[in-house]
Design brief:
It is built from 14 helices and 24 strands. By secondary structure, the chain is an alpha/beta fold. It has 2 domains: 200 residues, Enolpyruvate transferase domain (UDP-n-acetylglucosamine1-carboxyvinyl-transferase, Chain), CATH 3.65.10; 216 residues, Alpha-beta prism (UDP-n-acetylglucosamine1-carboxyvinyl-transferase, Chain), CATH 3.65.10. The strands form 6 sheets. It has a 4-stranded mixed beta sheet with strand order 22-23-1-24. A hairpin with a 2-residue loop joins β16 and β17. The longest helix is centred in the middle third of the chain and has 14 residues. It is globular and about 65 Å long.
């Protein structure tokens, strides 16, 4: 099994091209199931999760083509891909495919909308909590679907004539449920109103894609989405937005190591809360025409308290990375995790660097140290694993991060991007 080896202590200096957002690319790929015409996606990241979803879509009968690079294109530009679901040959998403990635469960919405039936395995993914699918099923039932659970599969059937629009008020904010119900509602009869919808930029990206395909959606970017159902959707060409979590990760890495890095293509407005917090730690952030510049030159890292929240708050997907930064702050900081109940698995690994972290329920207290020491550590989930890389970049001596398949799920070319900026980092084949 591959691992990452790094020697800490180097500042980061240079440019990093921000890849397309995994959390937008996956639902955009799934949206291809809603039409029999080609959906062309630009800036798709090269990730294990994207490959896994390709397998799931191909199982449903989707033809997928990856287009070659255009002349003059940077080698870090994302893929241009065409998805054509001319004929859905199978409405079952089997356990062996869905169990590896939670987002694959979202196919249930488009399949039900277009084919009026679906049989989808209950999902897998990162081990960061239960993350039940109750809200998904609540929304689909509200649209008129009959739902049964049979031997680990959700078996869903639409009423005769298809799903029927209604008002759905989510009891809590869910990105996955919002994506799924939004896609399903585009082909429902009548009008659907989703209240307490997620507002993440990835939701906006998908909603605007659906509009480009002929859907009628208002309230995009707000807590209330109104969808007027249409009979069919057509093809479209859509850009995947830059990955705000990757942007935040590299910004934190630069703040941790010191240096000067331009995050090319970054959209600061997609993670303003996180950037505001990062600025309070002492990092200098400057918006430029090409993206976001992050600098820290020898100043101490100031301790800052953080609480995770749904967008536009501080993202849970940056919590582990920020904790790594706080391990070398000049004082004591506290992090409150409000989204997932089991998202402190990285704490034990950060402690291996010599970090001083105590967890009490949802709150982690970090007492900063002037120096971390390199260590053998193990990745536990996607976002946590990159926090270990960030700690290793600043730690004295050698760090080896094991089980990096988690990293490959969500970070494109991580070692390459960091080494171009002066990090001493390499992948070691296992």
């Amino acid at each position: 099994m591959d691992r990452i080896r790094l020697i800490g202590g180097n500042e980061l200096n240079g440019d990093i091209a921000i890849s397309g957002a995994k959390n937008a690319a996956l639902p955009l790929m799934i949206a291809s199931l809603l039409t029999d015409e080609p959906l062309i996606l630009q800036n798709v990241p090269r990730l294990a999760d994207v490959k896994q979803l390709e397998r799931i879509l191909e199982n449903h009968g989707v033809d997928i083509a990856v287009h070659g690079r255009r002349r003059g294109e940077h080698d870090m530009v994302g893929q241009r891909m065409t998805f054509l679901a001319a004929d859905i040959v199978d409405t079952t998403a089997p356990y062996e495919l869905v169990s590896k990635m939670r987002a694959s469960f979202w196919v249930i919405g488009p399949l039900l909308a277009r084919c009026h039936e679906a049989r989808v395995s209950l999902p897998g993914g990162c081990a960061i909590g239960t993350r039940p699918v109750d809200l998904f099923l609540f929304g689909l039932k509200a649209l008129g679907a009959e739902i049964d659970i049979d031997e680990g599969y959700v078996v869903a059937k639409a009423p005769k004539g298809g799903l029927v629009g209604t008002t759905i008020t989510f009891p809590k904010v869910s990105v996955g449920a919002t994506h799924t119900i939004l896609m399903a509602a585009t082909l429902a009869r009548g009008t659907t109103v989703i209240e307490n919808a997620a507002q993440e930029p990835e939701i906006t990206n998908v909603a605007e894609c659906l509009v480009a395909m002929g859907a009628k959606i208002t309230g995009i970017g707000t807590r209330t989405l109104t969808i007027e159902g249409v009979e069919r959707l057509h093809g479209a060409t859509v850009d995947v937005i830059p990955d705000r979590i990757e942007t935040g990760t590299f910004a934190i890495a630069t703040a941790m190591t010191g240096g000067n890095v331009l995050l090319r293509g970054a959209r600061p407005e997609h993670l303003q809360a996180a950037l505001d917090i990062l600025a309070r730690t002492g990092a200098q952030l400057t918006v430029e025409p090409e993206g976001l510049r992050v600098q820290r030159h020898g100043d101490a890292i100031a301790p800052v308290d953080v609480e995770t929240d749904p967008f536009p708050g501080f993202p849970t997907d940056l919590q582990a990375q920020f904790m790594a930064l706080m391990t070398m702050s000049s004082g004591t900081s506290r992090i409150r995790e409000t989204i997932f109940e089991n998202r402190y698995m990285h704490v034990a690994e950060l402690v291996r660097f010599g970090a001083d972290i105590a967890v009490d329920g949802q709150v982690a207290t970090i007492r900063g140290k002037t120096q971390l020491k390199g260590a053998q550590v193990m990745a536990t989930d996607l976002r946590a694993s990159v926090s270990l890389v960030i700690a290793g970049l600043a730690a004295k001596g050698e760090t080896v991060v094991n089980r990096i398949y988690h990293l490959d799920r969500g970070f494109e070319g991580l070692e390459d991007k960091l080494s171009r900026c002066g990090a001493q980092i390499e992948r070691v084949a296992g």
